[in-house]
Amino acid sequence: MKKQNHFARLRTAVLAAGLTLVLAASAGPGHGPGEGHDHDEAATPTGDGPRRQPDGRVFLPKLSQRQLAIRTQIVTSDTLPRAVALSGRVSYDPGAGGRVQASVTGRLEAGPNGLAGLGQRVRKGEVLGIVRPVHNALETASQRAAAADARARLAVADARLKRVEQLEGVVSQREIEQARADVESLRAQLRALSGGLGGEPLVAPVSGVVAAATGVVGEIVDARDTVFEVVDPQRLRVEAVAYDASIVADIASASASSKPGQSLPLKFVGAGRSLRDGALPVQFHVEKGAGNESLAVGQPVRVIAQSGQKFTGIRVPSTAVVKNASNLDIVWVHTQPELFEPRVIRWQPLDGANVAIESGVAADERVVVQGAPLLNQVR
Fold this sequence. Notes:
The protein has helices at residues 2-27, 62-67, 137-166, 173-198, 245-248, 372-375, and strands at residues 51-52, 58-59, 71-74, 77-92, 97-101, 106-109, 121-122, 127-133, 200-203, 208-213, 220-221, 226-231, 236-242, 251-257, 264-271, 280-286, 300-317, 322-323, 329-336, 339-344, 346-349, 354-359, 366-370. It has two domains: 64-92 and 233-375, Beta Barrel (conserved putative lor/sdh protein from methanococcus maripaludis s2 fold), CATH 2.40.420; 98-219, no CATH class. It starts with a helix and ends with a helix. The protein is α+β, with helices and mostly antiparallel strands. Helices cover 25% and strands 36% of the residues.
């Protein structure tokens, strides 16, 4: 009886194991415990995914193109201005910016509106801070005595000026002018002495934004130290360097960029006539409202100077140009609905946002203008 029960239990276990295997097989591959399954959903073939072919072309399904935000455009051949790229740096217009320096050595103090800080907008003549000269007791007493003496002599000179002006016609005009000059001289002396005792106000030379503030309250600053720098962000300049002087003679227009795809219009101001480190300095003015707020004094930029010479080329966004594995410049051409072909090109800058292709692509071909870096990474 025990043996029969043993065989019955063994048969039940075998049947249960077999049923489990059948259920697992019916669930299909890729389904684990607790996962649902849909018999109507077909598995995506592994060969339909993005891949690079042996000849370098890339197969990219329509769905992947939408996911990568690939955009293309049909290119045309146009007559374009020849341009050259120059290295530049942002500076400020000398007439719309300046440095605020201390003329005496002293302790930095806050002005009536506090000590000016970075990014603060200020008006011309506004007090940004005060430098109070540091003197010992003997020097302070000496300056106060000199100021008192100047004040007394100024009172005498004022009285004398009033007297000779009342005698105008009796005394000579030369004597009256000398009396006036004496009064002005003594007033200037008194202002200088009083300033040495009361502190030197540091005033904004122009209306604009505080671009640099190097001092803190209580700090000792030396004479001629730059404490503040004020610039007008709407009147910035770009200084570039040209190693070929002939470029300067044929500049028709220019633009600047600090990042790919950016183009800030510039106006040519002029060029120096003496070399600096073997190059000719070239000045450009940043047009108002051209994104000046995104520029900072001292920031490096790339300047594209266009000449009056023309050539035939194809205009594409600069972001369409990428590097291949051999470090050659290429663009991707959309040759078939799901096929992209890399083309080695020869190009030159056109402006900050566009380049001109001289060879490698023909007119009426469809070029990738958005998403080229992502497409370039498909392996």
